[in-house]
Amino acid sequence: MTGPAVPGPLVKCLVWDLDDTLWDGVVLEGDRPVPRPGAVAALKALDERGVLHAVASRGEHAAALAHLAEHGLHRMFCALEVGWGPKSEAVRRIAAELNIGLDTIAFTDNDAVELAEVAAALPQVRCYPAERVGELAALPEFRPGPVTPESRRRREAYLTERRRAEAERDFGGSSARFLASLDLELTVLTATEADLERARELTARTHQLNTTGLTYDVAELRALCASPGHDVLVARLRDRFGDYGAIGLAVVAHVGGDAVLELLLMSCRVMSRGVGSVLLGDIVRDALERGRRPVARFRRTPVNQVMLVTLRFAGFEPVERDGDRMLLARPSPEPPAPPAHVRLVDGRQR
Predict the structure, then answer these.
(1) Which of 7, 39, 71, 110 could bridge to 141 as Cys pair (CB 3.0-4.6 Å)?
(2) Alpha helix stretches (DSSP H) within 242-316
(3) Alpha-carbon distance 101 to 56, whole Å?
(4) How confident is the model at residue 313, as a pLDDT?
(5) If pLDDT is split at 50, 70 and 90, which confidence band does 5 have?
(6) How many other C-beta atoms lie within 10 A of the C-beta of residue 156?
């Protein structure tokens, strides 16, 4: 079994079987297998690029985690599903835990039956036999482009997010009170040359929280930054647990009396923080302060309905429709209320 001829979206997470895949042997049968060198090399190469790793394997969770820890690999995995149920269900839970689409997940296993079960239940997931693990880093779907600081920190960011989730489970109060306790700070900056590779990466990786699905290469972003008729904005987020890095991007075109939001996207890992509406509100306030009408383009995709909901809640109303494309405008001259749970820092260059 191999991956599809057309790779589709870039792989954000590779889900591993353990026994006879990551290592030769079965831990619960008393084996003490050493991880395969080729598998470890693939783990590290993909991790460096920002591809996450997770586990969907047969066995007992404690034993698997202990064996991973024995070989210094336990922190390489952002989610561990070890048990006896269908692996497709384990993969589905991993996607939900990491808040990424199933079409951005790949799965590797030594057992052809397990591969077939996952492929049949989750056709969006790309499946690869264990003997191909050493080849994966060379495949286009595993090559997101130049490595950015955020790429190198992605695994740690997800592990930090796990600590946040644990803190939320232990919090005892409402979700709103927990968000307020995070001391969230969103900084909106005019993109500079140093931001362009990360901005390109965001357009390539972000599908669910993306208003138009547009992608830009670095040269296109550089040209937009130099254009007097455009603003390219990068949003950075931090809280009391640490720095999320650059998690949002917006491209605004100034056309006549309109400020046209050509693209708004947010990293899926901050979906639960409610910062997409905060960034949108800041863009609306800036447009109104300049005496411009806030306008937004939206193109429907199979996964981005939440962004249309975000636009509508912010007061945008449809004014033009053309198939899956829509133009929305915000008729109200009143600025949106400032965010209650996020400290907003305006770092734009004006």
Answers:
(1) 7
(2) 275-289, 305-313
(3) 17
(4) 94
(5) very low
(6) 12
Measured CA to CA, the distance from residue 211 to residue 75 in angstroms comes to 34
Tell me: the pLDDT tens digits for 259-289?
A: 999 999 998 878 888 899 999 999 999 999 9
The predicted model gives 311-315 an average pLDDT of 95
| Strand pairing report for 293-299 and 317-322 | unpaired
Separation in Å, CA 137 to CA 12, 39, 45, 47, 186: 13, 11, 7, 10, 34
- Kind and range of the H or E run holding 41: helix 37-49
User: Over 60: is that where the pLDDT of 91 sits?
Assistant: yes
Residue tagged 């937009």 (tokens): 224
- Could you list the beta-strand ranges (E) of the chain: 13-16, 52-58, 79-83, 105-109, 126-129, 184-190, 230-239, 242-255, 258-266, 293-299, 317-322, 325-329, 342-347
CA proximity to 55, closest of 38, 35, 37: 35
Q: How far apart are CA 252 and CA 230, in angstroms?
A: 6
State the Cα–Cα distance between residues 68 and 76, nearest whole angstrom: 9
What are the tens digits of pLDDT across the range 36-60? 999 999 999 999 999 999 999 999 9
Q: Which residue has the tokens 């905060």?
A: 278
Distance CA 250, CA 190 (A): 10
Using only C-alpha atoms, the chain has a radius of gyration, in whole angstroms, of 22
Looking at residue 338, its pLDDT comes to 83
d(CA 343, CA 233): 17
Q: 253: buried, middle or exposed (CB in 10 Å: 19+, 13-18, 0-12)?
A: middle
* Cβ count within 10 A of residue 334: 9
